[in-house]
Amino acid sequence: MKDTNNNIETKSLSNLRILGLDPIIYNKTGHPGIVLSAAPMMQAIYLNNLIANPAVPDWINRDRFVLSPGHASTLQYAILHFAGYDLTIDDLKKYRHINSKTPAHPEYGVTPGVDNSSGPLGQGVGYGVGMALAEQHLAAKFNKPGYDIIDHYTYVLCSDGDLQEGGALEAIQLAGVWKLNKLIMLYDSNDCQLDTKCEEVLKVNYQQFFEAQNWNYILVENADEDLTAIKKAISVAQKSDKPTLIECKTIIGYGHPKQGSPMHSSPFTPEEMQQVQTFYDFEHPQFYVDPDVKTYWNDTFIKRGEKAYQGWLTKLAAYQTAFPLEYAQLFNSPVVDLTAFKSLLTTDKSKKAGTRIIMGDVFKHYQQNCSNNMFGGSADLGTATKIIGYNGSWTINSPQNNNIHFGVREFAAGTISIGIELHQGLKSFNSTFLIFSDYMKPCLRMACIQNLPVIFAYSHDSIGVGFDGKSHQPVEQLAMLRNCPNLNVLRPADIKEAIGCLKLAVEAKSTPSALILSRQDTPYQLTETCYEQTLQGGYIVVSEDTTKPLTAIIIATGTEVPVAINAAKAINENIRVVSMPCVELFEQQPGDYQEKVLPKNFAKVIAIEFSNDYVWYKFVGKTGLVIGVNDYGLSGSVDAVIKYKGLDQDAIIQRIKKYIG
Fold first, then answer.
1. Which residue of 263, 360, 505, 637 has the fewest CB atoms within a 10 Å radius of its CB?
2. Number of C-alpha atoms within 13 angstroms, CB side, residue 541?
3. Distance CA 556, CA 561 (A)
């Protein structure tokens, strides 16, 4: 593709393509095909449209860009270098090196200008939907006449592979229902994937599909070269009253001798790279950036962003003066004051409820009396989980409300929640049954990787689900969650621990939380629990007589805590009971505190939890006793199932008596 007219945008595109290939060729690893096909879309987004300020990369009112196919990372790195972000040529040379700014797939918080981590295909689509939803919600809540402090677009680049993933399709459906008109998705439609041509595994008319989902659809026929058509399509999309898919027909590896074939995961040979450079009439040393191109980017992208940012700062200062309360709500980090929940505490010793009901009371009280920055909802189970937005249902006619109805879409609920959290300004959460955390594992993992404090609430937490039977009785899910690095798994026993768990989840800065909540009833408030000590992850709720030898220690979580307390009282021995609402936080406590609660050299330790989580053996040791579940449960009433499995109060007491001899 010759630059016969020396058009600066054409020269920039050629330079972008070659610079995007250079890290791959230099390090002999990467995916070059998508760099060549997707470069025109990326340039049209960044150079001609996207508003951001590289000097303030986390500016809340910047346009967002989501790269869903993370294997196009070097293209994004090249464009961020052009755009003036803190990403040098040396950084590009360290592509895929340990602890570099240029990992194999883009990572949020590692590379300046990267708005999301990507890698697993499809999830980025949900992130983009979440960002656009957050923008719409915040604008409705905080913008005032003449003070549009939240007003930006969300751009997504997706691939053939992204649109085959079920999670992406879930999010696409919701975006159409919600009419997220500031969401613009450009689709690199090159008809190839890793193993095959797309036609061998796909028979979808995307125009008909997206229009049926209430999206605007635009086709660009020759996106490899027609920058003008791509820019025009984006301009049309910006004026739409619904989300827009711009399908850009491209040839993967455009300019390579094997273009149009599934070859995008193999680095080019030096000879092939020379042919590509000749095709684009851009024959320069590796990592060359044309001075005219760099100047052009400075005069367009950088200056546009700086001007917009300065204008926004002026508007924001006036907004802070005129609306100080709203300003504080938007920009202050949320804090949970434990004493603000005293009205929920009760002296009624007979009151019982599932911890889903208890945590629902805490959520409602917090949202309606303490903070209104929570934004989330349930995957069509809010009436059961009780973890919802309590300030009205979000709809296109009431976008200021905070309860999101995700429909039966657990995966999308997770990715959209991540997008909301990535956006900033809101505390995102979602809820479903614990058994369906399996559907959310991929996005839950990505929340942990991105250090995003999303709240994942999971109710119906054990065989206590009873009548719902094996398919709905979680057994192995707690072990799965506790094995996720950088995830706090919180299983409160009563109202006091629920308040403490809310504080941990809301105030977390870089760790997601999984709230594990019961359907079966338990005492609403235990005498022995403490919300302050909940913050330590584990603590003593029943102390032994320190003047006598300690007979045994019982560890329990959630609804099993009162069972453990009752067992200790019923057995005529000197027993300590430990509540451990969060294993991860307990293990972060100082060693002397852990030793005080659970002495390492003490042999008689019992753990009670209605799961099959082997985490408890690290606390009870080889000589300890774990009372849990070792199969998938069965169908019956709650009491009948628990009794049949030998997990009722009397059976547990007998097992402990036998164990301690």
1. 637
2. 34
3. 5
User: Please, what is the end-to-end C-alpha distance for the chain in angstroms?
Assistant: 84
> 642 is written with which tokens?
């628990």
For strands 521-523 and 352-354, give the pairing: antiparallel
* Contact (CB, 8 A) for 257 and 229: no
Please give the DSSP secondary-structure letter assigned to residue 137: H
- Confidence band for 263, pLDDT divided at 50, 70 and 90: low
> CA-CA distance, 94 to 23, in Å (whole number)?
8
Q: Write down all domains in the chain, each with its CATH number in brackets.
A: 8-308 (3.40.50.970), 338-523 (3.40.50.970), 537-660 (3.40.50.920)
Q: Are 626 and 616 in contact (CB under 8 A)?
A: yes
Q: Active-site residues: which are they?
A: 410
Token pair of 492, please? 């409160």
Residues 552 and 604 sit within 8 Å (Cβ to Cβ): yes
| Chain position carrying tokens 């204008």 | 311
AA letter at 269 = T
Does the pTM surpass 0.85? The reply is yes
- In this structure, the strands spanning 575-579 and 552-556 are parallel
Residue 257: the pLDDT is 85
Q: What pLDDT score was predicted for residue 197?
A: 84
Nearest to 522, CA basis, from 344, 346, 351: 351
Task: Report in angstroms the alpha-carbon separations of 631 from 439, 473, 628, 637.
Answer: 20, 10, 10, 17
Closest CA to 636 of 466, 430, 488: 466
Closest CA to 142 of 11, 327, 270: 327
Q: Pick from 479, 422, 425, 481: which is nearest to 457 by CA?
A: 481
